[in-house]
Specification:
seven-stranded mixed beta sheet; three-stranded antiparallel beta sheet
């Protein structure tokens, strides 16, 4: 580095120090405007990795190129259809669904930080047909009489206090297809691999003459793992057994099932994806 380059670097450093020390508060960013600055508002809290061609630093999980959503798009034509997306997290799946030709997407996110990250994503990748709403999608489904062509619930069922209610409400609000990816309860897996405090007790629920088993799953949050938390809104949720999830879908009129990503040894618990088609 020559003398001129050293001088320029020194001047820049001094200007940076001076501008930071004189700011009204830490909520001002006086650097060159960029998308990275917006991402850095939640630095260290992102889950998703943005498309590589954007050259942005966020999370590490490839949710903008998620193979589960790619499989769903391949198996279910969503072009020119109205979609409901539950729990968009940071907008990565919304990006994939819009690129696949969805006519419109209503995406509902209760985690306020995740919602704001969705808005950052919307600006960065220029989503045009996606509307993000902040709030509880259960409340939305209870009070809306609009029927979507397709509903996407990827990674939300196992965060529910009442997962059967969610399946029932989705059946009332969806005309053609429901896509689920979810963890499920398996007693043998819990005995072998789960923290003994993670699951605590069993609750029975009656639904349309069916006996449903609910298993309480506790988040076990502390300061070290609560930053960037993207689970449910309560301290616990209820998991269902795999077969009972499919049985409830059958009972609410979505009995044509295509199963994928059936991973019993998933590190966070057994999981699978299902595309359920309405059958009268």
């Amino acid at each position: 580095m020559n003398i001129k380059e050293k001088f320029i670097k020194l001047v820049g450093f001094m200007q940076s120090k001076r501008s930071k020390s004189s700011l009204v508060n830490e909520f001002y960013d006086m650097s060159m405007p960029s998308h990275q600055n917006a991402i850095n508002i939640f630095k260290g809290e992102w889950s998703s990795r943005f498309p590589d061609e954007l050259n942005l630093e966020a999370g590490t999980i490839p949710l903008f190129n998620d193979e589960r959503i790619a499989w769903f798009i391949k198996e279910c034509d969503i072009s020119n259809r109205d979609l409901l997306e539950l729990g968009p997290l940071e907008g990565g799946h919304s990006y994939m669904l819009e690129r696949a030709g969805a006519k419109s997407i209503v995406a509902i996110e209760a985690n306020t930080k995740a919602y704001l990250k969705c808005l950052i994503t919307k600006e960065i990748v220029r989503l045009q047909r996606t509307k993000f709403y902040c709030g509880d999608f259960i409340q939305y489904l209870r009070h809306s009489d609009y029927r979507f062509d397709v509903a996407i619930a990827c990674g939300v069922l196992y965060h529910m206090i009442d997962p059967v209610e969610l399946l029932y409400l989705l059946s009332k609000s969806t005309k053609s297809f429901i896509f689920l990816w979810t963890h499920y309860y398996d007693e043998e897996w819990v005995k072998k691999f789960s923290n003994s405090e993670r699951f605590s007790g069993k609750v029975n629920k009656k639904f349309m003459e069916m006996e449903i088993n609910y298993y309480q799953q506790n988040y076990l949050l502390n300061k070290s793992n609560s930053i960037g938390f993207c689970g449910g809104g309560f301290q616990h949720s209820y998991w269902m057994e795999r077969q009972q999830i499919l049985q409830v879908l059958n009972r609410v009129g979505f009995s044509n099932h295509l199963i994928g990503f059936d991973e019993y040894n998933h590190p966070n618990g057994p999981s699978f994806a299902v595309i359920a088609q309405r059958t009268e």
